[in-house]
Amino acid sequence: MIGQPQRIPEFGIVFCGLFYFHFINSCILNTIANRVGGITLKFSNLYRDEIGKKLKSGQYDVLVIGGGITGAGIAFDAASRVMKTALIEMQDFAAGTSSRSTKLVHGGLRYLKQYEVKMVAEVGKERAIVYENGPHVTTPEWMLLPIHKGGTFGKFSTSIGLRVYDFLAGVKKTERRTMLTSAETLAKEPLIKKSGLIGGGYYVEYRTDDARLTMEVIKAAVEKGTVACNYAKVIELIYESGKVIGVLVKDQLTGENYEVYAKKIINASGPWVDSIREMDNSKKGKTLQLSKGVHLVIDQTRFPLKQAIYFDTQDGRMVFAIPRDGKAYVGTTDTFYSQDAVNPNMTESDRSYILNAIHYMFPEVEISEKDIESSWAGVRPLIYEDGKDPSEISRRDEIWESNSGLITIAGGKLTGYRKMAETIVDLLAEKFQSEEGKDFLACQTKFMPISGGDVGGSKNFSTFVASKIAKGLESNLTLEEAEQLTRIYGSNVDLVFDLLKLNKSDAGKYGLPLFLFAKLVYGIEEEMVATPIDFFHRRTGDILFNIDLVKKWKKEVIDYMTDKLNWTNQEKEKYSLSLEDALTSAVTPADEQE
Ligand SMILES: Cc1cc2nc3c(=O)[nH]c(=O)nc-3n(C[C@H](O)[C@H](O)[C@H](O)COP(=O)(O)OP(=O)(O)OC[C@H]3O[C@@H](n4cnc5c(N)ncnc54)[C@H](O)[C@@H]3O)c2cc1C
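YS: structure for the whole thing
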């Protein structure tokens, strides 16, 4: 079911892989839970006390600071090699950069222009692996690169560049690039600027939901035994004889402080890696340079984009315009950033920049600020390079180890998360071997589905989806709803349907539609949802791509969460206000809010 023989040269490896996955999958419980010390913990804030107790008791092999995609990948890799692993996240999982990207699993075509051949080859190859292991969160998306006279890419250089990209990324035959005439380019997307158009390049990238991808990797880590907790902030490092041996954590929901001990501590805190290095007194040599990127969301009735486009802006940068769920999203900007990394927001100039880019490439599209339904901003944790513009700085990752033994992983891309994790956990395995003579398994994650990804491989995903519809109908969902839930949750959908069936009377009691309620119950029971924004942003993406739905159902969702999670009136008010703020920030530039 999982092995993809075409990707693995030796029969023996295929056989071992299949045997291993059969064994592993038979061990997975039918809920997202882990068994540490004989107790089954559900991955839910309803079990927060127990999760806290698990973190406090006993010593871990590995403690990961940061629940973005980098930390998630490391925890998954380490736990699947049977290292005793914990992960601590100060906000919600993925609330840092990993819910704020362009949402593409891609090699980064433009980096070829900067001769980043090694990075493009490595990250490009990871695309297929990420897709194969989680077809429910990643979808191939044909990308059109229009070529205009005097633009960034000429027709010849695009043809060569895309061919090199195909080669470096090991792209399969059916997905290799084709070059289009101007008429063919316009047939794919009639809204493109006609003046000066000389053709187009047509090639495949993969679209993802970054926050859900991160969530599925964290859940996979938890299924393998990781103890993970959100809203738990590392506020101090603990040392013995100059070596870091633990962390002091402040629970952001209860205010409690507690200690967690581990043999190896990994700083995977993205834009905050330098803050952790400051705690460690090891912020020396290379440092981070943050760069902000903004995206705008527009309804397709106003911007009827049919086709994903990667296009030139007037200042020679490149921007994506991508259709998704009846909307088009466009971005990104790339500007140095030195303010609060927790809450980066769109400014007026970000908004004008993207609107101008749309008007430049799609001159017939008449949109203005009023048409922006939502937006998001994220900060890239780049490694500082003297004298370079933000878009020129390399996206490669680096590992730094301090005298205290703190291991920091900086930079990188969403797409390369699995490989980054493999590198860092290989390093840990070497250390455990040389320091304790202890052997751990080699990396397992290349052929290991992430949570929900056990669907028989990407080729069988449609058949898998069709096979689940009857069960969804039994819970009174419509055919479309059952199909959509299966596409979102993959092989976890049985549990989504079961939870819906079990809790259905509450949907009526709180006046919530079944489709939304199914996601809410699953989010609370199995994905550590703690606040309305966790649900509406990181678990469903609705605040970005279906903001009207959020406005319509926020009261009912908050009422249900209040009862389920036992909120006080104060907590209810606090979370309601945060959601209102998020709804305002989605459409109002930060400088207009002040
Ligand atoms: C605008 C934009 C577009 C992008 N587009 C793409 C793309 O299309 N494809 C792609 O492959 N990559 C893309 N990237 C890059 C990619 O998003 C990042 O490389 C990746 O998300 C970084 O993940 P991370 O886990 O390292 O950081 P984060 O996701 O930020 O995770 C770090 C986590 O550490 C937590 N943390 C910090 N301090 C502490 C503490 N003291 N205690 C506990 N937890 C702590 C934070 O809260 C945070 O959640 C984009 C980035 C941006 C900004």
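YS: worth flagging: The longest helix spans residues 417-436.
IM: good catch. Also The CA atoms of residues 252 and 534 lie 14 Å apart.
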